[in-house]
Amino acid sequence: MPKISVEIPAELLADLDEHVGDDGKFVNRSDAVRASIRKNLDLLDEIDARHDRLDDDAPSTAAGSAEETDE
User: Fold this and answer.
1) Were both Cys, which of 53, 61, 62, 64 would link to 48 (CB 3.0–4.6 Å)?
2) How far is CA 41 from its chain centroid?
3) With 0-12 CB in 10 A as exposed, 13-18 as middle and 19+ as buried, what is 34?
4) Where does the signal sequence lie (predicted)?
5) CB-CB contact of 26 with 35 (8 Å)
6) What is the residue range of 27's domain?
């Protein structure tokens, strides 16, 4: 899995950390960031679909919607 680096304001990181760990929704920051990106991309796809801007040949960003093929 590729790694990326991003700069995040301290306040935003503190908010993220409230959802990470034993009492949080996510095991670690990476899981939280991946879930946030997926959700944001899904929302953008929904907006594009409402405005007929989706390319039918483009793969969906929805989690679990991509199908693997044996080609």
Assistant:
1) 53
2) 6
3) middle
4) none
5) yes
6) 22-53
Q: What angle do CA 45, 69, 48 make, to 5 degrees?
A: 10
pLDDT tens for each residue of the chain, 71 residues long: 999 999 999 999 999 999 999 989 999 999 999 999 999 999 999 999 988 887 766 565 555 544 444 44
Could you identify the residue written with the tokens 């929704």?
Answer: 25
Number of domains present in the structure of the chain? 1
Residue 49: inside a domain: yes
Distance CA(1)–CA(4), nearest Å, equals 10
Copy the structure tokens of residue 28: 């670690």
- Its sign, for the CA torsion 26, 2, 67, 58, is positive
